[in-house]
Design a protein that fits this description.
The complex is a heterodimer of chains A (297) and B (441).
Chain A: H1 7-40, H2 58-65, H3 67-71, H4 73-98, H5 104-116, H6 119-130, H7 136-143, H8 160-186, H9 190-198, H10 203-231, H11 235-240, H12 252-262, H13 266-296
Chain B: H1 2-38, H2 40-51, E1 60-66, H3 75-86, E2 90-96, H4 101-110, E3 117-119, H5 128-131, E4 151-152, E5 155-156, E6 159-160, E7 163-171, H6 172-177, H7 187-199, E8 203-206, H8 216-227, H9 248-261, H10 274-283, E9 286-292, H11 295-301, E10 309-312, E11 323-328, E12 331-334, H12 341-353, H13 357-361, H14 375-382, E13 386-389, H15 395-403, H16 408-417, H17 421-438
Parallel strand pairs in B: 1-2, 8-9, 11-13
Antiparallel strand pairs in B: 3-12, 4-5, 6-12, 7-9, 7-10, 7-11
Helix pairs in contact in B: 2-12, 8-9, 9-16, 16-17
Classes of the chains: A mainly alpha (297), B alpha/beta (441).
InterPro entries (chain A): ABC_transporter_permease (IPR051393), MetI-like (IPR000515), MetI-like_sf (IPR035906)
Organism (chain A): Paenibacillus cookii
Transmembrane segments (chain A): 12-32, 77-97, 109-130, 266-291
Chain lengths: 297, 441
Amino acid sequence: MFSSLSYNKQKTIVIVSFLLIPLILLATFTYYPAVKLIYYSFTNWDGYSPEKPWVGLDNYKEVFSNPDIFKVFEHNFAYFVMGIIQNIIAIYFAVVLNSKLRGRNLFRILLFLPYIMNGVAVAFMFGYVFDTTNGSLNLFLNSLGLTSLGETSWLGTDGLVNYSLASTGLWRFMGYNMVIYIASLQAIPRDLYEAAKIDGANSWQTLWKITLPNMKPVIQLNLFLTVTGALEVFDLPFVLTKGGPAGASETYVQRVVDTAFAYNNYGLASAMSVVLLGFVVIVLAVQQFVLSRGGNK
Amino acid sequence: MKKRSYYLLAFVIILSTILSACGSSGDGKTSETGNGSSTPTEGNQTGGEAKTGDGTDISGKITFLTNRTDMIGKEYDEYLKRFNEKYPNIKVEFEASQTDYNQQAKVRMAGDELPDVMFIPTIPNSDLPKYFLPLDDLGLNDNMTFKDFKAFDGKVYGLSSGNSTSGIVYNKKAFADAGITEIPKTWDEFLAACEKLKQKGIVPLASNFKDKWPLNNWVYDLPRVIENNPDFPNAKLNTDTPFTMDNGYGKALSLIRELNEKGYLEKDINSTNWEQSKKDVASGKFAMYFLGNWVINQVIGAGTTADNVGFFPLPYDNSGTVRAALSPDFFYAVSKNSKSPEAAKAFVKWMLEDSGYADFAGFIPPLKDKESTLAQLKEFKATGVELQEGTPDNMDVANISNKAQLDLPALAQEFVLAKDPQSVLDKWNKAWAKAKKDLGK
């Protein structure tokens, strides 16, 4: 039946039918829930009852008037700091492993492996590493003779706990960033380096003047992933500390989850999610603005 | 152009038939609901016949959503065999819940997809008639503990599947090693016992502080028995300062704070490991737990003999008389939409009377005329402890707590870790008063 149609019509049919399924999936599992989320954020829904009382902007007022809600972003800051360090290390390894190094594929795989592991499994595993009395980290420090350091409560000290958790994230995602950087390194034309070599540039100069500027769009992408990742941390503190000690490692998303599932306030939780979405957009816009200034000169 | 619109039309038609197929199956559900709500009268009659013991006339297929996923394919199979001897025409399917039973049950409530027999999640009692059938016709009311716990408008909607109390579960060998010959009857004796254990290099009490839920008994049970007022948790409704140093909350929290300050808890309470602690209590590296009696069987299962595990009430003061809280576990309920409510009710009744589930799970049997077979519970009762039944949660209190985002075990964590515990109480009093005002209670 299709043979009677012109090529263009066949093409349209194929395109429409191929796109239909992914679009339906996208609509049902992404856009429909998102619209519902925004709708719930204007209600006082408790999560199970059929009635969803409309409360207008009350939830948003609550989010912005309760200082406790925003204070948890301080904890997310640790993840941001670690994310920056993570990117620097990733670039370093990418540059090293992009050079002619014996066994570089093995090293690449070794560094990338943690990313493949399930987040909850990683968190669980690090629970044993950070344990104060039986943890491998403290046992290691003790065997080095650092007995006072080997008494540290990595997950039980205010201020330190977020950095301990974030370092787990660093271990897990560094390889992922590295792979992206390697891909972008390989896309830099070789002749640029050859020209620089002929002009007498040393390797430090080529890194600063050729490699990094050429990687800029990818660095931008990775920074964006880092920032949004830092804002949305959930699984690590949820599994390892449950936000403890006494709320010192509670993150924003964890608070949203608690608000919805522990305190039955789906309306407020939805509003908090929408606010987080807004934040991510703002951060992205600011970052785009700051980083793209150099390129437009 | 014309043909193209034909094909577009064809797509629209296909799509709409798919969607309407979904819709019609949804319609089917609601018509079932209609049937379901018309049957309760029949259910009453057949339920009455069930009491006579002749179960052959009840038939149907029911689903039971259970939190004890570990029993599926093992104990439940055996229960089903015995159940079918009495009720040969009832088919029971056991459905394993996800880890968070409460949450899953609520999601299914929202979707109107409840199993026939289930446990009641945390919903206000006023919502019970919306989802469940009254169970008064089972003839168990006079024999049930906590029969008013899940009742509304004089009708009972939930029956306790087992009760538990809280107290000190301890390793008898560890006590003997430390030279403790008698179980402590006052708080001072308890502290002295802790000191002896500590001197021996045994961690006196495993708090599992980090995991938060093991602190539940400190904040839900202890305050009301210290106050000797079963309704104490609900009395919060009448005050703007529910947390003071000299009421049940302050006193209970000060006890665990004292234990921590004296070094009677784990070395680093922010780094505890629940699964490991069971093995450590079993082996005698840790001596005690302050938890519900359900933990007894778990400690035994972690590698010790039943006669090495003891159980006594926590002496929270120096008066010498001790009370302990009796609390219900999950409540059985029959869904309003059940297609065979008689069968579901018969199953609930059988589970309570004949299954032996309470003993298996280490609960105190919910039926008043049954005694627990667990040696530890007998030992516990022999101390002369008074078991105090709790009262159902007042929904206004729960709503204010949710509004204030008050989580008592989390408050306990803050209280124990804070430099100035009074400031923690002040903070939560303020949050409580504000939430109470906002809700106009």
